[in-house]
Write a structure and sequence with these properties.
alpha/beta, 17 helices, six-stranded parallel sheet, 11% strand, 407 residues, disordered N terminus, TIM Barrel, 9 strands, three-stranded parallel sheet, 49% helix, globular
Length: 407
C-alpha cells in the first residue's frame, strides 16, 4: 500500500471514530463527516447519547422541591425534572441552582439559600441509589460510572451572600461550586442585566468576591450580569468562567444573551456558555413579548413588593396571557444557537444550560428532561461528529468546571 492509500485509509478511520481536524484548526459549526460515518451515527443516536456524559449546567427544580414538597423519586406530570425522567433522558450531571426570590432580599437571602441547599442534600440522602453530591469533576465522573446522577449545587444571584465573604466561604464549604453573580437586578457590588446601571459593572467588593471565588475553587457564572460587569469579571478572574444558561444575541436580541464580542471574549478566557432552552431567549418575537411582560411585572413589583400574595395574584393573569401568546419555537432554533457559538467562539465553548423548572415554554418537542436525546439527534442531522457532540453535551462543561474548581 502506497503512502497516499495509507493516508486515505487513516483519514477514513479517523473520520469514522471521531473528528478529523488539522492541528490548531477549530471545527466549523456544521462539520460534514464522510457519508459512511454520518449514516452510522444517524442509525444510532440513542447509543451515542448513552455513550456521552450529558451535563446540564442549570435548573431551578429546587424551588419545586421546597415549595411543593416534590419527591424527585416520583415521576411527575408537572415541571421538567425528576429522577425517572432524568434517567429516561440520559442525563448524567445536573447543577441544581439555589435561587432566592427577591422578597427574601436583602437580610433573609442567606437563610433562604440554606433552606434550598438543605432541600437538595435531603433529596440526595433520600435517593442514594440514584443521586450523589459532586464536589469535584473526579467525583462527577465516578458517580456517572456508578450509573448514578451527579448533582452539583450552584447559587443563582449574589444577593445570597449578603455582601459577606464569610458567607461565600461557608456556602463553598457545604458544597456550592458556582455562583451566578447577579439575578436580573443589581446587587450592592455588581450590575445585573435587567436593571439600570448602578455601579458601572463591578465594585471593589465585587472584584474581591471574584478573587475569593477563584481562590476557593468556586466557578464564576456571568449569566444575568450586565455587559459591563461581564467585561469587568473577565478582567479580574484568573480562571475560566461560564454563562450557565444564556443564548446568542445575534439570533435573539435579548439582554440576557451574549453578543459576538462577548462570545469571543468568553472563548479567550477558556469559558463555556450553556444554551438556555427558554423560547424567550431563543426567538426574537418571544423575546419581545418577554421584555414587555417584565416591564409590566417590574411596575407591579414596585407597587406590591410588601405584599407577596397580592403581587402573585395580580401577576397571574399577565403571565397566563403571556404564555398563551408565546410563539411555537422549533427545536432547530436551539441548535442554531449552538451552531452560532461554534462558528464565533469554537466548538470547545458551548454546552447545555436548560433552565428547566425556571422557564415556562420550551421548544417544540423538548417538553422535559426525558426529551434530551432529541438534541443529540439534531446535532447528528447538522453533521456534527461524535467527538464534537460529546463536547457539546458535557465534556466542555466538565473541562471548565475542572479548571475552576479542581479535579
Amino acid at each position: 500500500m502506497n503512502t497516499t492509500s495509507r493516508l486515505l485509509v487513516l483519514g477514513t478511520i479517523l473520520t469514522l471514530t471521531g473528528c478529523l481536524e488539522k492541528p490548531g484548526e477549530t471545527t466549523p459549526p456544521k462539520t460534514e463527516p464522510q457519508s459512511a460515518a454520518k449514516t452510522s451515527l444517524e442509525k444510532q443516536p440513542a447509543a451515542l447519547h448513552q455513550r456521552a456524559i450529558v451535563f446540564d449546567a442549570h435548573c431551578d427544580t429546587v424551588l419545586r422541591m421546597l415549595k411543593k414538597g416534590i419527591d424527585l423519586g416520583q415521576r411527575s406530570e408537572e415541571g421538567h425534572i425528576d429522577i425517572p425522567r432524568m434517567k429516561a433522558g440520559g442525563l448524567d450531571i445536573q447543577v441544581f441552582a439555589l435561587w432566592v426570590e427577591p422578597d427574601y432580599w436583602p437580610d433573609k437571602a442567606a437563610k433562604r439559600t440554606l433552606e434550598l441547599a438543605d432541600a437538595v442534600l435531603s433529596a440526595i440522602e433520600n435517593h442514594p441509589d440514584h443521586l450523589s453530591l459532586a464536589l469535584t469533576v473526579k467525583d462527577a465522573r465516578r458517580i456517572v460510572k456508578q450509573n448514578r446522577i451527579a448533582i452539583f449545587m450552584g447559587i443563582e444571584g449574589g444577593h445570597a451572600i449578603q455582601d459577606n465573604l464569610a458567607l461565600l466561604r461557608m456556602f463553598h464549604r457545604i458544597g456550592v461550586r458556582y455562583m451566578t453573580l447577579t439575578w436580573m437586578k443589581n446587587t450592592n457590588w455588581a450590575d445585573g442585566s435587567g436593571d439600570k446601571p448602578k455601579h458601572n459593572g463591578l465594585t471593589e467588593l465585587g472584584r474581591q468576591i471574584v478573587g475569593e471565588m477563584n481562590r476557593l475553587g468556586m466557578l464564576v457564572d456571568i449569566s444575568h450580569v450586565s455587559d459591563k460587569t461581564f467585561y469587568d469579571v473577565l478582567a479580574v478572574t484568573t480562571k475560566p468562567v461560564i454563562a450557565s444558561h444564556s443564548g446568542c444575541r445575534a439570533i435573539c436580541d435579548h439582554y440576557r444573551n451574549l453578543d459576538d464580542d462577548m462570545l469571543k471574549a468568553l472563548a479567550k478566557n477558556g469559558g463555556v456558555i450553556g444554551i438556555n432552552y427558554f423560547v424567550g431567549f431563543l426567538d426574537s418575537e418571544a423575546a419581545r413579548l418577554s421584555q414587555a411582560l417584565w416591564d409590566k411585572l417590574d411596575i407591579l413589583w414596585e407597587k406590591h413588593k410588601d405584599n407577596r400574595e397580592k403581587y402573585l395574584e395580580v401577576r397571574k393573569p399577565l403571565v397566563d396571557e403571556y404564555n398563551k401568546n408565546l410563539p411555537k419555537v422549533p427545536l432547530d432554533r436551539l441548535i442554531e444557537h449552538i451552531d452560532h457559538v461554534v462558528k464565533v467562539a469554537g466548538i470547545d465553548h458551548v454546552g447545555l444550560g436548560s433552565d428547566f423548572d425556571g422557564i415556562s415554554i420550551t421548544p417544540v418537542g423538548l417538553d422535559d428532561v426525558s426529551d434530551l436525546p432529541l438534541i443529540t439527534e439534531k446535532l447528528i442531522e447538522r453533521g456534527y461528529c461524535e467527538k464534537d457532540i460529546k463536547k457539546i453535551l458535557g465534556e466542555n462543561m466538565l473541562r471548565v468546571f475542572e479548571a475552576a474548581i479542581g479535579n
